[in-house]
Amino acid sequence: MTASAHRYLSLGAGVQSSTLPLLAAKGRIPPFDAAIFADTSWEQAAVYQHLHRLTGIAEQAGIEVVRVSAGDIRADAINPAHRFASIPLFTLGPNGERGMARRQCTGEYKIKPIKAEVRRRLGYPHPARVPAGVRAEMAIGISLDEIGRARDSDAGYMRNVFPLLDLGWRRDDCLRYLHRQGLGDTPKSSCVGCPFHDDGFWIRLREHSPKEWADAVAFDRAIRHGSARASATGHPLRGQFFLHRQRVPLDEVVLRPRPQPADAPGCGPWTCPHDAPAQAGAGGGEVA
Question: Helix 15-25 and helix 45-60: axis angle, to 10°?
Fold first, then answer.
């Protein structure tokens, strides 16, 4: 088998990755055997709605859309029986120290299940060793304005390719193309309770998605003292966790939206705009 024998798409369901199955369907780029969506079970409702319509378009073109999952990130974070894959929550130490927990969520809930699916499709699920020469291409929706995020795969059985870079497309080109295809309202993909949301996002969520806002507020309250598992095993957080950088309860934050770049990307498996992992600030056994 060679790299050309297996071709997959990492489908984050944001602007750039949504452009790729449409381009493949029109013959503008080579087709995919499958588009793989890593589901954290906590995307915004608008993302799931968009994924549903995108699935229909892709499958009409013979591209299978596959959902894979490592679990429900929200439920896992507050489950005392589950290992906690750290979310980059804002921390406030006992003496007022400010920091952030490490970010492990993208790797655990997006990249890891995609790699497992690729291995399965190659015929060598973990822990089987993938023989030399058996490799898949993984298309990633990185556009020219994000070229710094284009990196080689760290897995020998997978070769990352970047069709948008080959076309010389920027995110604005993707937006125009999606608009022409009737998908101009493609949302940015991210978990409801992502600590990297800006105040504009939180205001829109509160005003237009009250159920999701209430869900985020409840989660913020639930993680105040860190990992439920660490607390249950006698290793509580020395300080407090918060979803918002002001480090007060989410429903008490004075939200002050600031102008944000219109082309700011969402959080795809290999395209999270916050690539550098933050370090734990408040200490404790909550970050494994």
Answer: 10
Q: Tokens 């916050």 appear where? A: 274
Q: Which residues pair with 242 in a beta bridge?
A: 90
Distances in whole angstroms, Cα of residue 50 to Cα of each of 55, 187, 221, 224, 237: 9, 8, 29, 32, 38
157: its two tokens: 């059985």
Spatial distance between the Cα atoms of 34 and 21, rounded to a whole number of angstroms = 10
Q: Quote the pTM value.
A: 0.88
State the Cα–Cα distance between residues 253 and 245, nearest whole angstrom.
Answer: 9
What is the per-residue DSSP string for 106-174? HIIIIIHHHHHHHHHHHT--TTSPPPTT--EEEE----GGGGGG----SSTTEEEE-HHHHHT--HHHH
- Residue of 87, 76, 78, 128 lying closest to 267 (CA atoms): 87
List the structure tokens of 168.
């010389």
User: Can you say whether residue 114 is alpha, beta or left, with left for phi > 0 and alpha for psi between -120 and 50 degrees?
Assistant: alpha
The CB density around residue 9, as the number of other CB atoms within 10 Å, is: 28
3-252 CATH:
3.40.50.620
- CA 34, CA 7: separation in Å to the nearest integer? 7
Please report which helix (H) or strand (E) contains residue 99, including its range.
strand 98-100
Q: What is the pLDDT of residues 201-230, one digit of tens each?
A: 999 999 999 999 999 999 999 999 876 666
Domain boundaries defined on the chain: 3-252
Query: In Å, what is the CA distance from 81 to each residue of 52, 70, 186, 275?
Result: 32, 15, 36, 29
